[in-house]
Amino acid sequence: MLNIICVCTGNKYHPIYIDNLKYMIDKFSGLEYDTFNVISEDRHEGVFNKLQIFERFTQDYNIYFDLDVVIRGDCNKFISQALSVIYAWWRPAYHTPINSSIISWYGNKSFIYNDFMEQPDYYMVKYHKGIDQYIHENHEYITFPEGGVCSYQTILDEREYSVYLFNQRYKFMQNPGWYSKYLLPQFQSHWQDYQVEYQ
Length: 199
Description:
The chain is an alpha/beta fold and 199 residues long.
């Protein structure tokens, strides 16, 4: 069994980003999944809401995707038993060396969330770079094989990566580009209507 998970809390992302993610998964990822899940409970500050994925999904294979990604190819390579994240090769050396835009694991990893909940206020201050830093400094993980993911911050043209991470440049996805052909058809063409409605 495979669970696909995303998180949409607060008002940063319009719900169309959820529809867009599911569209790309269904059309381009090659993943045969059993459930598509959206976590919307705003328990913590910002990105730390993502840690709820470990509390809520404690069985079977699980894969989490950020909403600001473009999926253009096979994602079965990201399915893993061990806790797996992205090696953030595009970041400066002083930054956290991993990225959590895609996270994969099997079974019960609820201890990751439980450990955080022992001192959530302290951890949110200490790990000001976000959950990438929290995971890197506190939990064992492996990274996905190279060549599957890249960052749009570093590589702007289309290459043979299965997933492009827009890494906080999610509004760029609203503008036409080579990636438009992978997005939900109405994602860009109706964006102005969505924007007015959302604001």
